[in-house]
Amino acid sequence: MEKKDLPNSIPVFPLSNFIIFPKTTVPLNIFEPRYIDMINDSMKSNKLIGMIQPKSSQDNNKIPELHKVGCLGKIKTFSETEDGRYLIELKGIVRFQKVKELKTEKKYRILNIDYEKYTHDLSEQKENLKFSDLELIFKDLKSLFEKRGFIINWKALEKQSLDETINALAMASPFSLEEKQILLESENLDMRKNKISEILKTYTHDIYDNYTLQ
Fold first, then answer.
1. What is the pLDDT confidence band of residue 132, given thresholds at 50, 70 and 90?
2. pTM
3. Hey, what domains does the chain have and what are their CATH numbers?
């Protein structure tokens, strides 16, 4: 997709503790009526929706404020279950900055957005990182994942490109909403790798030794 083809306004799916990066694909299970409507409308047009995290809010009665940065995704596969849910695969295209929220008659939220800061997401340039640069991070992440009861196919990850691997781990990590947002906003892969390393240093093994998977 080229810059000229990017829409200035997009429907958004505000999902807490969930991020998507450009060039990565994630499955989504859509069941809320407003988001069923959103997918229906999107499938009839450009198949594009935005993923963006809400800011944590104590007041459940208020519409949550959204973070400044999200990622535009394109629906790559679509199927409907017998009980009316939609199963889609969404591929990340380019990150965006929120400009303002538009008032519409739709039940879902629509944002006016800007891509200027992240247009490099559209390029195919590979960043100069070696797998050896990540070995220690992977070791620490593997320990963190296992203590949380997460199962990751590390051998499969090692066969992917480094950008796919780092982004997949950032998306799947048991980090907080705020920590995942920091990773999403990291301008490039090298910065994201460093941020993962910094976040891991804040986690102590004691926290996870006491964790029971619910």
1. low
2. 0.82
3. 3-122 (2.30.130.40), 131-209 (no CATH)
